[in-house]
Amino acid sequence: MMTVYSVWAAGLGLGLASLLAIGPVSADVKYRLYCANGKLEVDTRTPEQMQRARGQVCLLGEYDTRAQAEAAADRRGGSGAPCTCP
Predict the structure, then answer these.
(1) What is d(CA 74, CA 18) in angstroms, rounded to the nearest whole number?
(2) CA-based nearest residue to 40, from 14, 58, 67, 18
(3) Radius of gyration from C-alpha coordinates of the chain
(4) Is 48 a member of any domain?
(5) pLDDT tens readout for residues 42-64
(6) 3-state secondary structure the chain
(7) Residue 8 domain flag
(8) CA-wise closest residue to 33 among 22, 23, 24, 44
(9) pTM tops 0.70, yes or no
(10) How far apart are CA 76 and CA 27, in angstroms?
(11) Fewer beta carbons under 10 A from the terminal one: N or C of the chain?
């Protein structure tokens, strides 16, 4: 027969396992600067996902923070500015 303590311990163990499983996934987020259909765009999607969503795309840079990606876009005229793929 399960005691209240063993039920609590099992729930705590499952909760910790869930947090550990989710942790590395969110830490891997990259902010990417794309030229998508002739316009600059900052997004977290992979190049493959962007190609499916936007069609013609090229990756112009990959950054750890959104601020870095936005700064790179600003140096090229800002998000939405015209661009061409190299």
Answers:
(1) 38
(2) 58
(3) 21
(4) yes
(5) 999 999 999 999 999 999 999 99
(6) CCCHHHHHHHHHHHHHHHHHHHHHHHHCCCEEEEEECCEEEEECCCHHHHHHHHCCEEEEEEECCHHHHHHHHHHCCCCCCECCCC
(7) no
(8) 44
(9) no
(10) 27
(11) N
Which domain, by its residues, includes 59?
Answer: 31-75
How far apart (Å, rounded) are the C-alpha atoms in residues 13 and 32?
A: 36
Residue 35 in any domain: the answer is yes
Distance of CA 57 to the CA centre of its chain: 17
Whether residue 56 contacts residue 12, with contact meaning beta carbons closer than 8 Å, is answered with no
Count of structural domains within the chain: 1
How far apart CA 45 and CA 30 sit, in angstroms, is 8
- In tens, the pLDDT along 20-39 reads 444 444 558 999 999 999 99
Query: Quick check: is 5 in a domain?
Result: no
Rounded to the nearest 5°, which phi and psi values hold at 62?
-135, 135
